[in-house]
Amino acid sequence: MDKLPVYQCALCGESIAMENDSKEHIVPLAIGGRRKVRNFICRDCNNRAGHQWDAELAKQFSWFSAVLDIKRESGTPAPKVKITTIDQQEVYLHAGGRLELTKPTFEDVALPEGGRQISFRARTEREAKRILRGLQCKYPEHDFSSMAEGLVIESTTPGVFKAEFSFGGEFAGRSIVKTAIAMAHSIGIPQWQCDYAVRYLRNENATPAFGEFLARDLIVDRPDSKIFHVVAIAGDPVHKRLFAYVEYFGLARFVVHLSLDYSGDSIQQSYAFDPTTGEEIELQVDLISLSESEHSLVLNNEAASSFEARMAAFEYAMPIVFSVVRAKQNQQAIGQALEDACIELGLHPGQELDEKTAKQLAKCLTNKLMPHLLHRIRRRH
Ligand SMILES: [Zn+2]
């Protein structure tokens, strides 16, 4: 009888048995990873690496996870993220792109020519009314109650974000290397063949096995309207290299060295998927064309290269992110407006509509959609 293979934890080297095996996501769950591997790391290491490395990676991409409404496996939406707009306002970015002030703002300034200028922004109508009541107590000679009638409730306009992204670094880098080894494991490459990367993960002082790669685009048929993550593996026995390419959200692009002494088969395989839906995508990554000098750049972490290269990645990725967000918001707004209009007109699902009711519904729907449409039109200018 064949002996079952004995797996060792890629992180601590412990033998993996049924009791301490864990299901590890190839790409971390927090940024939309779906596919899992078994017999890869032990349960303790899964918890430890998950908390430290993957959490740092998730933090670096929290803006993307929130704005794209990337669902966790359990269906829980991405947590809200605090961001700052360019006019220095702190807002919460909720899953799906909704913005909310972190706290109400209030300004009460005495004007040099006498009188006062009071301005505030509240998060809800109730909060606005509470502020007005406060003002009424402070300045009883004025009538603030009439203002409560004319309150303009407007969804917070996103404006322009002060975007500060930083990718990579010690912990997030280790998460990326772990992802590359997990992908290799999933296509049957034994762990000992990933010696260079495994040594790095097990030893705090080892030379990093990864480097950012923006020197040129390694994706042959880069999609121009889809958000995707990709993990690709290449084995090149001629140059004795086993290496990987990991790209998240079109922006963070890394080459990972798995082995510098590879003697296995020639391999080229990739796994790409849309993190918002989990749908797998066919994608060709041209890893074999990486030259020896480009590999050296990666090992010395000099392949991130120019500011222009980074900007080009941003200019590619951000319009796609925003178009995906807009499409989602439109869909949500239409769904909500239709639901509200049906409730208002007392319509129920499956009901036949006569011409009069259909017209009523169309009018009601347009009214409900108006704030969303106005908001959209305003943002275009
Ligand atoms: Zn372990």
UniProtKB/TrEMBL annotation:
Superkingdom assignment: Bacteria
InterPro entries tied to this protein: HNH_5 (IPR029471), HNH_nuc (IPR003615)
Domain named HNH endonuclease: residues: 9-62
Annotated GO MF terms: endonuclease activity
Tagged with keyword Nuclease: yes
A Pfam match: HNH_5
Record's keyword terms, sorted: Endonuclease, Hydrolase, Nuclease
Protein name: HNH endonuclease
UniProt source species: Dyella caseinilytica
